[in-house]
Amino acid sequence: MADHPRSSSQEFHSILGLGAVCKAYKSFVSKCYPDKNSSLRKAEIEDKQIDEAYKAFNDRNHDENGEGIRGGDPISPRGGFKRRSVDNYISSQHSSLSSPSVSRSGSRRNRESTPTGAANLLRNASRRSSVDATTFNGSLSRSASRRSSTPIMYSNSNGLIKLPAIEMKLECTLEELCYGCIKKINIIRDVVTNDGQIVQEEEVLTIKVKPGWRTGTIITFEGMGNETPGTLPADITFVIVEKWHPLFKREGDDLELALEIPLVQALTGCTVSIPLVGGEKMSLTMDDILYPGYEKIIAGQGMPKPKEQGKRGNLVVKFLIEFPVELTEEQRSEVFSILQSSC
């Protein structure tokens, strides 16, 4: 019974692998002690030599005639030199040589490596030299290729002010907005030459009016306004304005047409001729009694729907009834007798 805890303890050691952990720890400790690792002793000697070299370099920076080297600086407890002056010098030199185009990750890495000391900085740099050289050259080649293939674009971030857009009205008839058309506008604008002179040039702007456009549609020509030194050229914008039409009134994609007919036709029925926006006419027979405000909808004879290709709105015919201005007593009596019996 007394051996049971001992066997359980050995079993736990085996499960946790503590034997392998102890062996790995002993191996790690032997590698970390300079007395047991010749490579660490060699690195320690190199570290001291680098410290002495930086001490001489730092003294020469403060005294170009060599007085600082002969006078010497107080030795640090490690047998090296005062790190503060050298580290500050390395930091200042590194900051002055850094380019604004360096990425944030590169800047952060350099700031973290400086406080570890000049000797450690050089040693770490020698270890990373092959990797960093490849990375830096690759970034340069990518930057160079990007600069050579991408045109320079000026924006407000460069301090250039873009002039306000020039707005102009473009009047179109209802027929032009229904079937589409091409508008050509001649403009004269100021242009800055390569030697800084301002000359006037004539430009022809072409606008393809699409079927279904309506009042308020905006067409923009970027950078086609006047040029002045130190600014970005303004845009030219054209705003569609629909001209007044003698027959039709537009309501969205629908067209409204007011048609007057005499009272007698409104009461007895008639056949009327309906004008269409394209200039054609269609015959429409009305058998119903037409009253003021009566509407007849003709499908597919309105304006094109830009978002629904091939479809058009409706033509809404509003009938206006013409009443007689005067009637004789006999006519009044006849109308009264007729309407009295029907109402």
UniProtKB/TrEMBL annotation:
Residues 91-105, 139-149 have a biased composition (Low complexity). Residues 58-67 have a biased composition (Basic and acidic residues). CDD domains: DnaJ, DnaJ_C. Residues 127-138 have a biased composition (Polar residues). Residues 58-151 are annotated as: Disordered. Pfam families: DnaJ_C (PF01556). Gene3D superfamilies: Urease metallochaperone UreE, N-terminal domain. This is Chaperone DnaJ C-terminal domain-containing protein.
